[in-house]
Amino acid sequence: VQFTAVGQTKPGGDLHPGDTLQFMMPFHVDARTSHFSRDWSIFIHLENADGLIVWQRDVYPGQGKYATSLMNGEMLWYNRFAVSIPDHAYAPQSLRVYMGMYDLHSGARMISQGSGASSDNHMYLGTIRLIAREDSSLPGIPNPMHVNFGGEAELLGYDVSRLAVYPGQPITVTLYWRPIHPLTTDYHVFTQILMPGTSNVVGSSDSMPDNYNLPTTTWKPGEIVKDAHTFTLHADASPDNWQLIMGLYQLASDNSIHHLRIITPDGGQADDTLSLTRIRVAPLPESF
């Protein structure tokens, strides 16, 4: 039995963080004489030149309508894909779009053959350019944004020294802040690289801004503060795609921690951490 992508509307062009990559592909299955023994899922990966999967989308065939283990004839259908790029993904960078099939239970990939197939058992579909949002109010600020932390300070952008890093190697995360009013509290900033959805941290920093050189009580309303944090990844960090997060908090006199929550544009309160870019922890080169 064969699962075949019989053509494609190749993804390409320019997108911004927060946009959605959308395209369709036709698929053909001939299961008249042999059948799938398990249910395969389709994955779409957006991958940069360092091998970092910036974002991904996994779906069952036909938007969940077709279980491959139940296919017993010849089928042709179009699959629509919509991959939402995170609001604060790092830009600019070029992203290659890949598609493949995998078994959700074992993680095994279906063998991929034909034009565009790779040894990793996925197929190259096209390339998009992820470009930073334009914000005329923040000239020169990388990855511009407006994120309000507790009505105290606004995160305006960020930069990272590298998107792929080896275990035991340093990385610098630079944040750009603007106080909303004169601050009377010296807040701490934390940055962490961790496994998405877990508390498994493989590298972090925790200090007042710019390693205690720029306490927040010295910030002047209207000024933009450049705040750099350098830390080293754990030597035993597992190779994988990890998530960079950050936040702002007050360390009280009793050593209790009070995080500032993000205030949404409608005045509501969201999380007390902000997800920035993914970071790839690369396997160490083999020694000769």
List the helices and strands and how they pair.
Layout lengths: L1 E4 L7 E3 L4 E11 L9 E8 L5 E7 L14 E11 L8 E11 L19 E8 L16 E3 L3 E8 L3 E2 L4 E10 L8 E7 L6 E7 L17 E8 L7 E12 L5 E3 L2 E2 L10 E8 L7
Parallel strand pairs: 2-8, 11-19
Antiparallel strand pairs: 1-3, 3-6, 4-5, 4-7, 7-8, 9-10, 9-18, 10-12, 12-15, 13-14, 13-16, 16-17, 16-19
Describe it.
The chain is mainly β. 0% of the residues lie in helices and 46% in strands. The protein contains no helices and 19 strands. The protein has strands at residues 2-5, 13-15, 20-30, 40-47, 53-59, 74-84, 93-103, 123-130, 147-149, 153-160, 164-165, 170-179, 188-194, 201-207, 225-232, 240-251, 257-259, 262-263, 274-281. The strands form four sheets. Strands 11, 13, 14, 16, 17 and 19 form a six-stranded mixed β-sheet that branches. A five-stranded mixed β-sheet has the order 2-8-7-4-5, with no helix packed on it. A five-stranded antiparallel β-sheet has the order 15-12-10-9-18, with no helix packed on it. Strand 9 and strand 10 form a beta hairpin. It is elongated and about 75 Å long. The model has no long low-confidence stretch (mean pLDDT 91).
What oligomeric assembly is this protein in? single chain
Mean pLDDT: 91
Number of helices: 0
> What amount of the residues lies in strands?
over 45%
Helix content range of the residues, please? under 10%
> What's the SSE pattern?
EEEEEEEEEEEEEEEEEEE
Dominant shape? elongated
Radius of gyration: 22 Å
What structural category do the secondary elements indicate?
Answer: mainly beta
Number of DSSP-assigned strands: 19
Q: Strand count, sense and closure of the main sheet?
A: 6 strands, mixed
The residue ranges in which pLDDT falls below 50 over 5 or more consecutive positions are: none
What's the N-to-C terminus distance? 43 Å
